[in-house]
Amino acid sequence: METLVEVKNLRKYFESIRAVDGVSFRVNRGEVLGFLGPNGAGKTTTMRIITGFIDADAGSVTIGGDDIVHAPVAAKRRVGYLPEGAPLYGDMTPRGFLSFVAEIRDFRGREKDRRIGETVEKTNLGSVFDQPIETLSKGFKRRLGLAQAILHDPEVLILDEPTDGLDPNQKHEVRTLIQGMAVEKAIILSTHILEEVDSVCSRAIVIAEGRLVGDGAPAVLRTKSRWHNAVTLSVRTDDGEVIRSTLAKLPGVASVDLMAGSNGSTRVIAYSKEGESILNTINQMIRDRNWETEELYVEQGRLDDVFRAMTTGELGSLTHDHHHKWNP
């Protein structure tokens, strides 16, 4: 696959603080990369380096083969950037602002009008097109920021919290727009919303204290959760301890939590050893004991669990996806 963004061994210091510490990754055409990390992890700094807003102290960034330092104009032509708190001119209207952006991008006449029209339609800004920006809601301002990022149809999109401030319907619209654009582009988006990673991203990287600690498809990262292949079971019985202790003795079961039941039922969660499948074993036990079950399902794993473990050091680095990981 064609690599559109290549980041090699980026380092950035602010006095004694290591904001970015040896980060390396690639993004291919067709990928939507979720950029995850706690506040202060180095996400926004990395994005600013990739887009050429600030310089790295070491390392390199290439956009479609153009180095962001040595060929900045060529590299930046390929990029659309939605920064955190995108600056907008309050006394302008969206019409005036997008016209200004289009002219900066060297579009004139019919081509300028065509691009503005398509962008306004994609971002649903028509109802506020001639309203002063300072009077717009946070959601409309965010959509206007996204509009300026996609107006020139760039190959690479860098989106810092693209759905911040949007209501649920607007979030759905923006996510659908991102998915629709992803086929021909490489998209990097930072988000604190793990549901967004599941619904939009084909891959995610996790950064903590300036270092990359995880890289993989959401489904792969989820397998590192203690909830991966855990089985939740409700049985019609008052004797929860018998259910718990019986399941705990099964091969492949690491531990069993007894949860609050209701109306004469017992609810338990059985965690598997190293994520192996324990459903068939538990099903056999249910048949052997003639348990009357009310609920039985298998967890795929929880991204919030993996995120917390990786960013607090409870789980080791997961960057085994060598197809994507750059090795110096």
UniProtKB/TrEMBL annotation:
Keyword Nucleotide-binding among UniProt keywords: yes
Domain spans labelled ABC transporter: 5-234
Name assigned to this protein: ABC-2 type transport system ATP-binding protein
InterPro entries linked to this entry: AAA+_ATPase, ABC_transporter-like_ATP-bd, P-loop_NTPase
Entry keywords, A to Z: ATP-binding, Nucleotide-binding, Transport
Organism, as annotated: Candidatus Kentrum sp. SD
Domain of life assignment: Bacteria
Classification via SMART domains: AAA
GO molecular function per UniProt: ATP binding; ATP hydrolysis activity
Family: Belongs to the ABC transporter superfamily.
